[in-house]
Specification:
aromatic hydrocarbons catabolism, alpha/beta, AB_hydrolase_fold, binds the ligand O=C(O)/C=C/C(=O)/C=C/C=C(\O)C(=O)O, 2-hydroxy-6-oxononadienedioate/2-hydroxy-6-oxononatrienedioate hydrolase, 8-stranded mixed β-sheet, 40% helix
């Protein structure tokens, strides 16, 4: 399958899952065919989706012979709404388990971005037998930063955008999201704003969830040693959302982790440094 052969619409799928406390419809994109499957889990920004977060990363994996599945987490994009009162990392992990069972997938590699990385670690702790290799960008655990006051400026701007979804607030958030804001086009802003405004229920539920439990992403530091999977950590040196020392904490705790830090990179390494990121991921998965 080549780049022009697939689109968001042509790969769009829905699945009903009943798993733990969850009984809902999930949306996902299913691209390519292959013996090995790579799951991609997006971050928690308003209007995020698997496709929005990873559209620069699908094709190289598909061309290398992987099946790629992009899950829209509960409460995002075309998946059903949800209010999260406990750990959203674990809620997403439960949803992923439900989807893997529906799709009859025993074991998968997972690429998680920010919240998606927190959820990947939650999934790995709950389902160690279901994981191959892990790639975590800009996340993997909640918890404190030794250097940066929290909530960070980026997370505060995400909150402002959820409460007041205007183009100005979107641009404010995105301007600290990536290192080089001049790489963001008006088309990207508009697409993202359309995604945001098309699901006001998701926005309201996110605000409600954060009020019910401000700590949606628990600190897994004390359990990281339980994860035996090979793990590639990828961070932006200038990440203003989830500071780089979170990556050092993961590196110290995960027994089989290595860390790559991109210079001139914010919170969106897989998009800001897509070519280098894609090469690194393929190398990591194949060797
Ligand atoms: O609060 C956290 O630890 C996690 C924050 C995020 O997951 C933010 C992610 C933002 C995106 O990936 C996005 O596309 O908006």
């Amino acid at each position: 399958m080549t780049a022009t052969a697939f689109t968001e619409a042509s790969t769009s799928r829905f699945a009903r899952i009943k798993e733990g406390d969850l009984d809902l419809q999930l949306h996902y994109n299913d691209v390519g065919q292959g013996k090995e499957t790579v799951i991609m889990l997006h971050g928690s920004g308003p209007g995020a989706s698997g496709w929005a977060n990873f559209n620069r990363n699908i094709e190289p994996l598909v061309n290398a012979g992987y099946r790629v599945i992009l899950l829209d987490c509960p409460g995002w994009s075309k998946s059903d709404p949800v209010v999260s009162q406990g750990s959203r990392s674990n809620l997403n992990a439960t949803a992923l388990k439900g989807l893997l069972d529906v799709l009859d997938l025993d074991r998968v590699h997972i690429i998680g971005n920010s919240m998606g990385a927190h959820s990947t670690v939650a999934f790995a702790l709950e389902n160690p037998e279901r994981i191959g290799k892990l790639i975590l960008m800009g996340g993997g655990t909640g918890g404190p930063s030794a250097f940066v006051p929290q909530p960070t400026e980026g997370i505060k701007l995400i909150g402002a955008l959820y409460r007041d979804p205007t183009i100005d607030n979107l641009k404010k958030m995105m301007s600290v999201f990536v290192f080089d804001a001049s790489s963001l086009t008006e088309e990207l802003f508009q697409t993202r704003l359309d995604n945001i405004l098309s699901r006001r229920d998701h926005l309201e539920n996110f605000v409600k969830s954060s009020t019910l439990n401000p700590k949606q992403f628990p600190d897994f530091s004390h359990r990281l040693h339980e994860i035996s999977a090979e793990t590639l950590l990828v961070w932006g040196r200038e990440d203003r959302f989830v500071p780089m020392d979170t990556g050092l904490r993961l590196l110290a705790g995960l027994p089989k982790a290595r860390l790559h830090v991109f210079n001139r990179c914010g919170h969106w390494a897989q998009w800001e440094h897509a070519d280098a990121f894609n090469r690194m991921v393929l190398d990591f998965l194949t060797h």
